[in-house]
Amino acid sequence: MAKAKLSVVKSTGKRAVAYLRKSTDQQEASIPGQRNAIHEYALKHGFELVAEYVDAGISGVDSSADRKEFTRLVEDAEQGKFGFVIAWDLSRITRSDPMETIYELRPLRRSGVKLMLTDREQPLDWDSFAGMLTLSVEAESNNQFVKKLARATTRGQDQLAKKGKWVAGRPPLGYAVGADGFLTLGLKKEVDAVQFAFKAYAGGVSFRGVQKALRERGFEMVVSTVRNILSNRLYTGDFVWGRNTQAKFYSMRGGEISTTFEGGQTDQADQVIVANAHTAIVDRNLFDEIQLTFSSRKRASTPLANGGDFVLSGLLRCADCGYAMIGSRTPTNSGRDNLFYRCAGSQVKGVEFCHAHNTMQDDVLKSIFQTLADRFGNADTAAKLRTEFVKQLKDQTKEVDSKALASDLSKEKAKLDKASRRLVEVDADLIGVVQDQIREIKLRVATLEKDLKFASTSVSDSIKEYDDRIEKSLVLFGQFKTIYKQADPLLLRSFLLSAIESIQVRTTRQVSGSRFKYTFEGGDIIVKQDANLFGSW
Known about the structure:
The protein is an alpha/beta fold. It has helices at about 30-45, 70-80, 90-95, 100-110, 130-160, 190-200, 205-215, 225-230, 285-300, 345-350, 360-375, 380-400, 400-425, 430-455, 460-485, 490-500, and strands spanning about 15-20, 50-55, 85, 115, 175, 185, 240, 245, 250-255, 255-260, 265, 270-275, 315-320, 325-330, 340-345, 360, 500-510, 515-525. Strand 14 (about 325-330) and strand 15 form a beta hairpin. Residues about 5-10 and about 300-305 have low confidence and may be disordered.
């Protein structure tokens, strides 16, 4: 076998770097396409490429400070690391107007660096009057192209929005874009996370508390993102476009394309709103209540961590109007505050819509635990539940094929490994797509691992575990009528939220002098379909 040899090649002395940029415009040359053209140009003209700078997904009219790689290129040029910059054409360097273009290129000129473009043989002439005039004309042409494209994009986005179709960017957490352009429900894990966030906040959990809980579920986000989720009307099924604008050239004002506008929050009159355009993730009443809660919590000096001592926050709903009942307190001479809940329907829509029904927390808690103890704290109920559990367990065991599950799991893990390797190989503009694929594969892997673990557990072991839970729970249910008074509020609420969807509260109103007095009459406890009352406590 011949011995491998390395060749020594003398440097050409023409040290050059490549600069590549692509915005989100599909008409522009791709990063790989620009790279190939630059390498061919360098080879043809004897340049030695020593580095590459890539700004992917960045507009050419963004300031040079926003283009991190261009900024780094300028800093390296000022340190004398190379003598030439090669780009596909001038529009890759910038699409700014002539004045801004000259300003952005000034550091390169001052550093003695020449700008080479693959559509011409000579470096850009920025030393003569004729060269600067040519540069200005070309810069203006590039800038006008961007403005023309921006105007057409603004009009097209407005037309899509008025149909209730998704316009641009990544859809909100919990949604995906369907083939018809409308929003559709996304991954179940994401939908569940959004619903959890709304219910948790309505239940008294702070923004930071919701953020922490979502992180534990695998969703990394900052506190401001939680606030944006909870204030996004899209989750009610309404399509809203144009709440904020960061446009540089054009925006819709009064139904027409306008160049006179300010960035930031947009007046509602200039927003596009299409009611019931897609499937809602959050109940509209709950959304309205939370918007009301925003303002009330702003006035509070300290938010109630995890609901404070309001055990029933997020659970109680007015039986008359369906709105949530919001916790409040009144001081007493004994020093112990009276905790009560008032119907939010009257606060949101007025007393003509619903009376200000209110009820004391202690009255409702006493009724809840009395009901649960009577319903579940007896041997007959436990025996029926055990029989049903055993039946379902045996049916599920018959349907499970452990070998097939193991095979599917192995295939999904192979896909995950392949996708992870691909993540470091694809172009920057495809990274988001691959990341979405990885998230979906990870979810399937987690589900298969859970199913395989279940299939590996014998029926007798599962039944024994369930019997132990029933035995312990029967004792607890029997003590519910008294122990709830001494229990930690956070533990109580955790148990109730795990087993109960909501509690419909009925009250009666009586005249008491010049005021109305409300008395708790009862209601309905809506137990979750997947609630495990014998395993939640």
